[in-house]
Amino acid sequence: MAVVETEYLGQIMVIRLNRPERMNALGFELRSMMADAWNEFEESKKLEVAIITGTGKAFCAGEDMKEALERGAPGSQSKPVDDPLKDGRISKPVIAAINGFAMGGGFMLAERTDLRVAVPEALFEVSEAKRWLLGGYYHAHWANLPHPVATEMAFGFRFTADRLHQMGFINRLVGKDQLMAEAISMAEHLLSLPPASRVNTLYMMRQMRPKVDEDLDALAEALHDHGEKDDLMESRLAFKEKRKPVFKGWVKPEDRYAMPTLDSVKVKK
């Protein structure tokens, strides 16, 4: 079976991640096929709404750390084709039907969608703080969540679907047997609107999303290099071996206090 399946319900395209034995982790093949599906959706003259979901107990577990360890480098291999969802080029509504774990890159996949419906059992985690040298500072900012929640999220704490629903990150919570029916109902509502209204409203709402200041992005880029990069692979190896990681922290102890600052990285305007 294909690791990404597609289904067509009139003007609705369902994209289903189908690698349940690996919790729909973002391996090279899955990312390739998912990118192909997003390109098909964006380029189609017929399809108007997409629904992204997963099979098994996970929506998407994020980075395929087995592949990263085999490759000897952290993160996902460079995407083989342009992915218009990841690049922010999808011009049509996308609904996430979150059937289970949404971790790391799986959380990022969910946050790129416009509307989200989830099962109560779903768990969410922004995993950067566990796998890189800087936590996911921007995710809760994009979602317009309070700063203490943003800090908790950046440090890699897990969130239940119910909590994220209460805070507004998830639109609706439904039982597993109603997940796809609810997502399809939301898609059908969008299709019931005047086409120009749907297109214009989507564009307007996306322009209103919070954005991270470019100086803060420059600081984040510098902080990604502030520390011992051997710890990136150690975190992944420890996860695979189910043991506590042994981190080095710094190339030299004094590096801890040689922090990049906002003033040192300010973008010239």
Largest sheet: number of strands, sense, barrel closure: 6 strands, mixed
CATH architecture of the largest domain: Alpha-Beta Complex
Q: What structural class do helix, strand and pairing data support? A: alpha/beta
Strand content: 15-25%
Rg over C-alpha atoms, rounded to the nearest angstrom: 19 Å
Number of helical regions? 12
Helix content: 25-40%
What's the CATH H-level homologous superfamily of the largest domain? 2-enoyl-CoA Hydratase, Chain A, domain 1
| Morphology | globular
Please characterize this protein's 3D structure.
By secondary structure, the protein is an alpha/beta fold. The chain has two domains: 204 residues, Alpha-Beta Complex (2-enoyl-CoA Hydratase, Chain A, domain 1), CATH 3.90.226.10; 52 residues, no CATH class. 39% of the residues lie in helices and 15% in strands. The strands form two sheets. The chain has a six-stranded mixed β-sheet, sandwiched between helices. The protein has a four-stranded mixed β-sheet with strand order 4-6-8-9. Helix 2 packs across helix 11. The chain is globular, with a radius of gyration of 19 Å. It starts with a strand and ends with a helix. The mean pLDDT is 94.
List keywords for this structure.
alpha/beta; 269 residues; 6-stranded mixed beta sheet; 2 domains; 4-stranded mixed beta sheet; 2-enoyl-CoA Hydratase, Chain A, domain 1; 15% strand; 12 helices
The gist of it:
By secondary structure, this protein is of the alpha/beta class.
